[in-house]
Amino acid sequence: METVTLVKRLNNLKTLEQWLAQRGINTSDWGTTGAKSVINLWHELLEGDVVLQDNPPLRVVHVVQIIVRQQGRILIEAMQEFGDGSRRYRNQPPSEKMKIDESHVDAALRCLHEELGVEETDVSFNQSSYKQMQAQADSPSYPGLPTQYTFHLIEAAVAGIPDTDFWHDNETYGEGDPVKRHYWVWQPAGG
């Protein structure tokens, strides 16, 4: 398999669109019904959030997931609301794509700040809980583009967040991040 960081070869949005089309990736539904747009993928490449591989096409992502426990419950992102008002259901713990060469702890702190408004001084990680696992799937963000995920899971105690379900505005909402706000719920830990 030829591994290429394509952002060097794909020097603009048009070349990314052509690359996707040449590899049979249908982007006609991207940017609708909870999926992100080609522009969002371009920003992910520019920001160092993902790498694309060629032959076969594959989006490679490292994701940190933070398990936040409180009173026998776990914090879950139930849904995201986009700037246009559409919503995407998530049902996952606080999660963030890691930047190239970013540690899982740095990415976790960035996630907790951007999505929950938590300061670094309010977070304590349980380093012995750290686990890593890999999966490959069709991404709900980019239907039809195979994605390899490497998940970095870590537990954290987090002070200062509500103990009831709540919305929180996304600190990085804008051109590169279409998510305007996140809806957080507490679910039973279940063991």
Description:
This protein is an alpha+beta fold and 191 residues long. It has a domain at 61-188: Alpha-Beta Complex (Nucleoside Triphosphate Pyrophosphohydrolase), CATH 3.90.79. The chain has 3 helices and 9 strands, in the order ααβββββαββββ. The chain has helices spanning 13-22, 38-47, 104-116; strands at residues 50-53, 58-70, 73-82, 87-92, 95-97, 123-138, 146-158, 166-169, 179-188. Strands 1, 2, 3, 4, 5, 6, 7, 8 and 9 form a 9-stranded mixed β-sheet that branches.
List the helices and strands and how they pair.
Layout: H1 13-22, H2 38-47, E1 50-53, E2 58-70, E3 73-82, E4 87-92, E5 95-97, H3 104-116, E6 123-138, E7 146-158, E8 166-169, E9 179-188
Parallel strand pairs: 2-7
Antiparallel strand pairs: 1-2, 2-3, 2-5, 3-4, 3-9, 6-7, 8-9
Structural class by SSE content: alpha+beta
Assess the beta-strand content as a share of residues.
35-45%
Q: Find the CATH topology of the domain at 61-188.
A: Nucleoside Triphosphate Pyrophosphohydrolase
- Separate helix tally: 3
- What is the terminal-to-terminal distance? 41 Å
Helix content: 10-25%
Summary of the model, kept short:
The protein has about 190 residues and is of the alpha+beta class. Helices cover about 15% and strands about 40% of the residues.
Descriptive terms for the model:
191 residues; globular; alpha+beta; Nucleoside Triphosphate Pyrophosphohydrolase; 3 helices; 9-stranded mixed sheet; disordered N terminus
